[in-house]
TrEMBL record:
This is GTP cyclohydrolase 1. The gene is folE. The keyword Hydrolase applies. Belongs to the GTP cyclohydrolase I family. Residues 54-77, 204-237 are annotated as: Disordered. It comes from Subtercola boreus. It catalyses: GTP + H2O = 7,8-dihydroneopterin 3'-triphosphate + formate + H(+).
């Protein structure tokens, strides 16, 4: 569904007036048009089926040939495909303020592979609509899991939210991390290696381990040496 630019322009004109400004002021005259153009980008994913972005898929044979050399799968266990550091931006539906961050996406193929460029395209369509980070991750996971008939999917999103950094709590250094998983990658043991690989990505805030318990022997103050007392013989001397 295309954004109705005329309605957006009219709404922004009224919004400028509602905050006490003059929408006819020279510096603001073009603002409604500019906002309408920006919203056409921000919300271009509304009403679009993200599964259409997967396009053509390719057969997956496990990377090994059968005994007859035909290339048929020979029982090889599929390994995950992981893409790290995919930049995205979206608009929070609560305050219509932007949030932006990085997506890390992995899937375990069953019998089909997809071009790597298709995964960012799926993220872009789903992000270009009023969103919540939690829902965005779930929608990415569902689209890949169902659209590729994958064995498993893991989606980790890290983002900074304007509604947290620019208003209210104004926590300018905060980052929100969400995890969505499907199928075989819902098992903690199966996704542990992937989480480790994702943790090595730039900007990923790894969860700190438990603080070490201090060794009482190492922190205790040394016991002072006893003060020697003179013997009667020494006193007599």
């Amino acid at each position: 569904m295309a954004v109705d630019r005329r309605r957006v322009e009219a709404a922004v004109y009224e919004l400028i007036a509602a905050i006490g400004e003059d929408p006819s002021r020279t510096e603001l005259e073009s603002t409604p048009r500019r906002v309408a153009e920006a919203y056409s980008e921000f919300f271009s994913g509304v009403g679009v089926d993200a599964r259409d972005q997967l396009g053509e898929t390719y057969p997956f044979d496990g990377g090994s040939e059968g005994s007859d050399g035909s290339g048929a799968a020979s029982g090889a266990s599929p390994e995950p495909v992981l893409m790290k550091g995919l930049a995205f931006r979206s608009v929070c539906e609560h305050h219509l303020l932007p949030f932006r961050g990085t997506a890390h996406v992995a899937y375990v193929p069953r019998d089909r592979l997809v071009g790597l460029g298709r995964i960012p395209a799926v993220i872009e369509v789903l992000a270009n609509r009023p969103q919540l980070q939690e829902r965005l991750g779930e929608q990415i996971a569902s689209t890949l899991f169902e659209g590729l008939d994958a064995r498993g999917v893991l989606v980790v999103l890290e983002a900074t939210h304007g509604c947290v950094t620019m208003r209210g709590p104004q926590q300018v250094a905060s980052t929100t991390v969400t995890v969505a998983s499907r199928g075989s990658l819902s098992e903690p043991a199966a996704r542990a290696e992937l989480m480790g690989l994702i943790g090595a990505a730039p900007g990923f805030a790894a969860t700190p381990g438990p603080a070490a318990t201090p060794d009482p022997a190492a922190t205790a103050e040394p016991t002072p040496e006893p003060t020697p007392h003179p013997t009667p013989h020494e006193v007599a001397l």
